[in-house]
Design a protein that fits this description.
3 domains; alpha/beta; binds S-adenosylmethionine; 9 helices
């Protein structure tokens, strides 16, 4: 290993001294700053050793623990230097769920799956590496994951002060919905009763319950695997007094006109659940209606869904936001819609 001369800088004033040495250009930026007995060992470039010594610092000599300033992508590429066939097709982006890495692999990478899993785990410091093979599918939005490296597929994603624990091979997590999860946290739901009809592991339920002032949140989830994580996440986020998890189909929720706010965080078949939402919402309550639409016609489609369900004039669209792009020319939208007391279903 390369040897360097370092200046011993007292730890209690290290920040200021290191800044001075750095600003003067005396520090060897390819070697790491170390720690010994109340001192920081700052590597000094050979040509400045005398000057730094003259500044009154005690000097020493040691191994240069060199800094690898290459990006993770560069380090990964270097590990595949013997595989020119993989140049340009290795994933240069990935998703992290705690210490689990999720990749999307070009089919040409498949013969090297095992090696790719190991290298990405080592370079990125992950316990497990998975390949997302087909996105999510079915009523429960189950992911299709292949484990490339490691065995433990459960982890915790920390986001906006919330702990989302889940198994990446069993339950989806839409990283593109981060802004919407944040928006749910910012709602003023003081004293409200909220129903999350599609709670999953608590994507919207948890930030809303923790920060919005809601009195209680009924979180309904049909998939027993997601429900188990929902229950655990409610406990781990300290929300057992506010959130009531409900296992089952939201269409079987009992009661009428008791919810101040209803979350419909599901896309593509959301309109099939409007009857339930209108049954449980109280007059004047707000529905957060999610769905996917062609970008060119989303406003007309939202109006037509609510016209059909509530009758014209039975609702007021408060806002519509694009959550994320879903497919070419198609986006996922969320409409905040107030249901007027006059709406058609209030007579049911
Ligand atoms: C995965 S979430 C959708 C995305 C989520 N809102 C987000 O922000 O990532 C949808 C959840 O609704 C659940 N679900 C689907 N149909 C349901 C129903 N009829 N009643 C209750 N839950 C349902 C699915 O099992 C799934 O966990």
């Amino acid at each position: 290993m390369r040897r360097v001369i370092f200046a011993k800088v007292p730890a209690d004033a290290a920040g200021q001294h290191i800044r001075t040495l750095m600003d003067a250009g005396y520090v060897d930026r390819h070697a790491k700053i170390g720690k010994v007995d109340g001192f920081r060992t700052v590597p000094i470039l050979p040509e400045h050793i005398d000057t730094v010594g003259a500044m009154g610092f005690e000097m020493g000599e040691g191994d240069a623990h060199t800094l690898d300033r290459r990006s993770p992508q560069e380090r990964i590429a270097a590990r595949f230097a013997d595989h020119p066939d993989l140049v340009g097709i290795l994933p240069d982006r990935w998703e992290s769920v705690g210490d689990i890495i999720i990749l999307r692999l070009d089919p040409r990478c498949l013969p090297y799956s095992e090696l790719i899993g190991r290298v990405y785990a080592e370079v990125l410091g992950a316990k497990t590496v998975c390949a997302d093979t087909k996105g999510v599918s079915g009523e429960f939005r189950r992911p299709s994951m292949r484990v490339l490296y490691g065995t433990d597929t459960e982890s915790v994603r920390l986001e906006n002060g919330i702990r989302y624990g889940f198994d990446v091979t069993k339950v989806m997590f839409a990283s593109g919905n981060t802004d919407e999860r944040m928006r749910m946290r910012m709602q003023d739901c003081s004293g409200e009763t909220v129903v999350d009809m599609f709670a999953g592991i608590g994507y919207f339920t948890l930030p809303l319950a923790k920060y919005s002032g809601a009195r209680r949140v009924f979180a309904c989830e049909k998939n027993p695997e997601s429900y188990a994580f929902l229950v655990r996440n409610i406990r781990d986020n300290g929300l057992t007094d506010t959130v009531i998890p409900v296992l089952g189909d939201n269409r079987h929720l009992r009661g009428r006109a008791f919810a101040d706010r209803v979350l419909m965080g599901y896309v593509q078949t959301t309109s099939e659940f409007m009857d339930t939402a209108l049954r449980i919402i109280r007059p004047g309550g707000v529905i957060h209606y999610h769905d996917t639409f062609y970008v060119s016609e989303y406003m007309d489609r939202i109006r037509s869904i609510f016209d059909d369900a509530c009758g014209e004039g039975g609702y007021e669209i408060l806002s519509v936001r694009e959550v994320k792009s879903f497919a070419p020319s198609v986006s996922h939208y969320v409409a905040d819609v107030r249901i007027r007391p006059s709406h058609r279903n209030s007579m049911l």
